[in-house]
Amino acid sequence: MSKVRIGIVGLGRLGKVHARNLAENIQGCELTAACSLVPEELEFAKNELGVLNTFSDYEEMTKSDVIDAVFIVSPSGFHCQQVDTAMKNGKHVFTEKPLGLVVDEIKETQEVITKHPDQVFMLGFMRRYDESYQYAKAMIDNGEIGEITLIRCYGIDPSEGMESFVEFAMNNDSGGLFLDMAIHDIDLVRWMTGQEVDKVWAIGKNAAYPQLDQAGELETGAAMMRLEDKTMALLVAGRNAAHGYHVETEVMGTKGMLRVAQVPDKNLVTVMNEHGTVRPCSQNFPERFREAFVREAQEFVSCINDKRQPEVNAYDGLQSTRIALACQESFDTDSLIEVGKD
Amino acid sequence: MSKVRIGIVGLGRLGKVHARNLAENIQGCELTAACSLVPEELEFAKNELGVLNTFSDYEEMTKSDVIDAVFIVSPSGFHCQQVDTAMKNGKHVFTEKPLGLVVDEIKETQEVITKHPDQVFMLGFMRRYDESYQYAKAMIDNGEIGEITLIRCYGIDPSEGMESFVEFAMNNDSGGLFLDMAIHDIDLVRWMTGQEVDKVWAIGKNAAYPQLDQAGELETGAAMMRLEDKTMALLVAGRNAAHGYHVETEVMGTKGMLRVAQVPDKNLVTVMNEHGTVRPCSQNFPERFREAFVREAQEFVSCINDKRQPEVNAYDGLQSTRIALACQESFDTDSLIEVGKD
Amino acid sequence: MSKVRIGIVGLGRLGKVHARNLAENIQGCELTAACSLVPEELEFAKNELGVLNTFSDYEEMTKSDVIDAVFIVSPSGFHCQQVDTAMKNGKHVFTEKPLGLVVDEIKETQEVITKHPDQVFMLGFMRRYDESYQYAKAMIDNGEIGEITLIRCYGIDPSEGMESFVEFAMNNDSGGLFLDMAIHDIDLVRWMTGQEVDKVWAIGKNAAYPQLDQAGELETGAAMMRLEDKTMALLVAGRNAAHGYHVETEVMGTKGMLRVAQVPDKNLVTVMNEHGTVRPCSQNFPERFREAFVREAQEFVSCINDKRQPEVNAYDGLQSTRIALACQESFDTDSLIEVGKD
Amino acid sequence: MSKVRIGIVGLGRLGKVHARNLAENIQGCELTAACSLVPEELEFAKNELGVLNTFSDYEEMTKSDVIDAVFIVSPSGFHCQQVDTAMKNGKHVFTEKPLGLVVDEIKETQEVITKHPDQVFMLGFMRRYDESYQYAKAMIDNGEIGEITLIRCYGIDPSEGMESFVEFAMNNDSGGLFLDMAIHDIDLVRWMTGQEVDKVWAIGKNAAYPQLDQAGELETGAAMMRLEDKTMALLVAGRNAAHGYHVETEVMGTKGMLRVAQVPDKNLVTVMNEHGTVRPCSQNFPERFREAFVREAQEFVSCINDKRQPEVNAYDGLQSTRIALACQESFDTDSLIEVGKD
Prior knowledge:
The structure is a homotetramer. The first copy, chain A, is an alpha/beta fold. In chain A, 39% of the residues lie in helices and 26% in strands. The first copy, chain A, has helices at residues 13-25, 39-49, 58-63, 79-88, 103-114, 131-141, 162-171, 177-180, 183-193, 212-215, 285-288, 290-306, 314-333, and strands spanning 4-9, 29-35, 53-55, 69-72, 92-95, 121-123, 148-158, 197-205, 220-227, 232-241, 246-253, 256-260, 269-273, 276-279, 337-338. In chain A, the strands form 3 sheets. Chain A has a 7-stranded mixed β-sheet with strand order 12-11-7-10-9-8-15. In chain A, strands 3-2-1-4-5-6 form a 6-stranded parallel β-sheet, sandwiched between helices. A two-stranded antiparallel ribbon of chain A has the order 13-14. Chain A starts with a strand and ends with a strand. Chains C and D meet through strand 7, strand 8, strand 9, strand 10 and strand 11 of C and strand 7, strand 8, strand 9, strand 10 and strand 11 of D. Strand 13 of chain B pairs antiparallel with strand 12 of chain C. Chains A, B, C, D: This is Inositol 2-dehydrogenase.
């Protein structure tokens, strides 16, 4: 069985994680190409990972015959267009979340994808490939907690990133807290419950960095959602967790509750010292989701080899963006917002 | 120092807890009288606790000179009127929550209370007297978690009570989930943050017992609140926790987070068996808050002896009911509701 | 029912805990007398607790008719003789552990106790009255963990006491780590398993305070014991826990394991801050065993009223001292020591 | 850089784990050969892992030039001889623990290894490559818990293996509990403390399966060890944990304590159901140490490429077997045994 040849676009922090996985940890593939406008990033691909073909022009890479598939890890605003280009050039496509920032644009991309049913399309909601989330999902699907009544999702970045974010936010648009931070949790809500969101209200507060009020950004925000079958969803997104990278999910059912990462344990070590009984915490997403990134990429390659589509599709991309935008609108207008669906 | 003589009204489940504490565990007081319409309850007071004076007429008890203070543990609908009567007859008053079910009635009672500044008035928000809540509050007040951005409160009763509740709800009005169950959590929101609630949205779902839809009751509900300084509050109230009596509170601040009873540990025992690593859970409020009830009653007696008013006052009673009613109205009308204050 | 009138001897740290409980928290008794050679301690009893009769002569107190029972909280070396005196003067007796420091002396006291079967005798192994230990014991007795194969007991005092202990040890004899610290755990071994100890080996190390080697004292020690039915016991005793008062017990059985206080949680609060996820720890025995002391004293009073003997008897006192002494001898001689029984 | 070509011998349960890792998850190597007497195992290697060269004669494999290194996962009794053969044929060697079952034989192998300093020799104490153990070791080496006073190691297999073990033990010699099960923990004691063992006492009990007494085998055993600097070590080894695969290590120091896998959490999921708050448990070593096996094999390959020897050497193999044998002798003779060193 010949190896799937992959070209990556975007070699920032997350791009490097993906590139190294594709080059070293994924069975059945080769990282044969890399595309970036930053010469240092192409040097990294060449020297550290042995990537043979480098490109500064994305379209050129998608047209070349040194790759079978692209891995898009570029800034969110480019995703739709890069998906379209790769699809039209006959390549399989993996793209990082979000699929896009604008609903209409995503719908067009969705159409492009639909027209190429033989090419694999996958969206990077990697939590679905985390061992603990999969264990939880299997319990739910087995009926072990009964019918779901409520889901609570926290996604809070560690405080150490705050200062650089504030600097960034003064001159840039992150897309807003809900699109930037909560989109993984929005996907979890839909994936875990199997329900669409009906209505949302979102609020937020800037406490440590009140200057974010001027930037129209949020340090911490919360959204409450009613799903179509009345299931409740509570989301907290933030950028200022003193203890680390706090991604926690709780699902309440009629027969039990479960929590994934109730606290963000870094490993299996417990320390007892003058502070009390201490469990060290995960500090960032590459640490917490290291294996999930590997399993996700492995699934992408397996889908190509098995000629099947992955579970996460373009509609998931459309709806997650739509809900995130509804949260933002709710916050901006201080009103209840209804979320549509197709 | 002579002992404070107390008369109790209401000897149901919680009434018996209070009566036994007053008779046996509180320093500086005597339980000298009991009032009930149920002869068996008066027999209990006489025979088990050695209460010398029993009454079937509440007003008569408040007028008698065998007591200095009343302890009101009757159904919520009677609280306001019973407070008024006792106050007017010169007695100190402790009443269980809620202070009342109707805002205007509470305001009148508040006026009565205000006119008797030398008589102690205390409202039974006993969680404020729980050791763990006091530890958490002290940490917050010491600035150890910085400025509060969000508070999350869960108050969920164990599943074993569901069937009798459904039966009850078919023929009675509980006042609604938010007034019946969430009022302690509403008090915690105000106490922990020191802020008033500005706006609420409440939702709910009946999953295991859909017949509650007809009764206008809820198995599980959630409310999101924005406080005056934009601090966020998330409340979950319910009656259907498979594992026990789940009362959990989380406070997020700019420098750290804390949780009270992250899971409802029953005691310090951990079991490892075929289910995994298991921590047994608290099953009901007398078990979880046994000591808090004692400390609360002790504080009431101490206030009388020290001629001072407790921290929990009539305004706390007014606001907690007001917010609970706003949650209920939000749920009933599916809209954002603004909460007033005086 | 008239109240049991109790006289206490010894009003040091633990004596004050007991005295306050007897005066304020125990039903059916009165603290009517106190005996001490320290005038300030008698002042405390008189002024803070309202004790009417104070004595500097212990025998005089035991002969007086203002008491029905004595509560012995004096230094360990006096216990046997004070038990004898009280028994001979017709009083019920509670004594703190250990019953004595010398096996032969304990046997004589045991005989005295046996000759007064109508007087209650109780030994202060208060852990048996702790809610979590009782829960664990009930699980074991119900067969929930099957047959016991191993028990592990930790009893480690917080570091903050080390410096004063070192100073003390330079000029005094504590009786040795095993008699001074491990005796509660030795009682737990016998109580939980229902087995006698057959053979022991004990070792120890002074690391932070090597000067204890000169004093013949230990900072931390361990003992392994084989019980008569081959059940294994592991004990760790120490004085230098950085995080607090670490009393932990584990019981392994053929169907499961259980742990009491796997870590010494202070309360139900969890903190997430720059150190990680933190559970504050208990700092001392009055904090950890507050309720156990109350329940223990209550049991003593109940035994007197019910004319029955408590579960903990003189033989428990004999064996626990015997085993502690065997541990010490094993450590001193670096050899396996067989423990006798009667 | 050309890839290290590896031949594996032994394709049982653990052998398959290693083989798959070498074939799929380790960078810089190829699994080019496999040796087994079981035809099905060679089929597995060929068909599932694409191994090109299969052997039924081990010496032949070590002489062939299709491999640079051997990976020995055969029964323990063959390890020494297979190491010798491979060394003499110029191959790098990885062998599973224990290095051998007989001290004199290990010493001879040690000499052989010493004579081939340019060939990498590595012993499979994979826990040293587990992330949590490495985190703990780094804390210790940084002085974060001060000087070590005591180490406690549990290694208990899940109950589900008991019946087949009893059957096996009736007709075979496992080497005894301490050599079979405790050897990883013995290595941890030496690795964590940096000290040699001076003296041991070992005890044991068969409770669920008393027939093991006849077989001279143990269901559960414990050993206490005094190390050369008086540091204490407590080991519990067993085969009958109801909840799963319980490998736990605790290190006490003068400034704090730490525990690795205080309970054997399977993942990050917490369940709240009718049993209480439940954490699922790891069920076996491939699950618990999946990543450690990968990192261990990666280290072996890296050592070959970097021309350096790994941290775990033949002397570690000698001492760990020596200590395990001393434990067994102590149990067999019911006496304290001194452990030698070279």
